[in-house]
Design goal:
Length: 288
Amino acid sequence: MKEVISLFDWRSELNQIEADAIGDDIILLENPIITTAFDYPFKVDVVTAIICTEGSIKGFIDLKQYHCTAPALFIVLPDQILQYEAYSENFSGYFIVMSKKFTNSLIDLKDKYPLNLSVKDNPWIPLAEGEIDGMILYYKMLQQTIRMKDNPNRMQILKLLTQAFFMGLGYQFHKLPKEENKSKRDLLVEEFTDYVQKDYKKHRDTEFYASKLSLTPKYLSKVIKENTGMSATDWINSYVILEAKALLKSTDMTVQQISDELNFPSQSHFGKFFKRQTGLSPKEYKND
């Protein structure tokens, strides 16, 4: 297997006049035009925060549908699989892109893991008028700091500003209305999909997830089908196919490498599985 896998070159797919950046650590983009390359599922290894000032955008993150309408803050985490479905003609916003190296270097983010869970559950947060103004001000402060090229402390300033941003973000999630009175079945569906997200690369059998939940495969399948309209097997296969599509479109991995990554017994087994689910062979999908 190759030691280095090239990920989707998202920067080349965003048509924009200019970007403020320090290497790949932090990149600011103002109203970039999203190209058709983003119509396919893709994954990147960066944190992306979009301050949506006008219009709307909708699509899927890890099979969960979202419809973000301005004013709002929209966040995508590293290794999530993103697909844009549509965005309004008047969509505009400020994009803040941060590398994992940069965000991992931030100190005093003790609540980072709970924050990640909150973002996964709520990828976008509606903002009031004063809150959107504050977000834009934050963006402008980052921009101004990046442009101070002769300041030896600018990276440290950027880190402190970003820590403040994440702390404020935690407050925004705290204000979201809590879903009360979820039924046992709703909670079971959530637990099931959480397990599938963690283990679909290694386990594609319903029995494994039923065992995790201390249920019989028959009962688990019944509940999942009745509550979601999709069978447990369909959910598992959907995650596998989504990952396969993202790897085919957003990396330079070969079909064999992807087959190995997803723990298929052979490239032939993977190819047959992929074609059965999509109607295309992996190579046909990659070159489409």
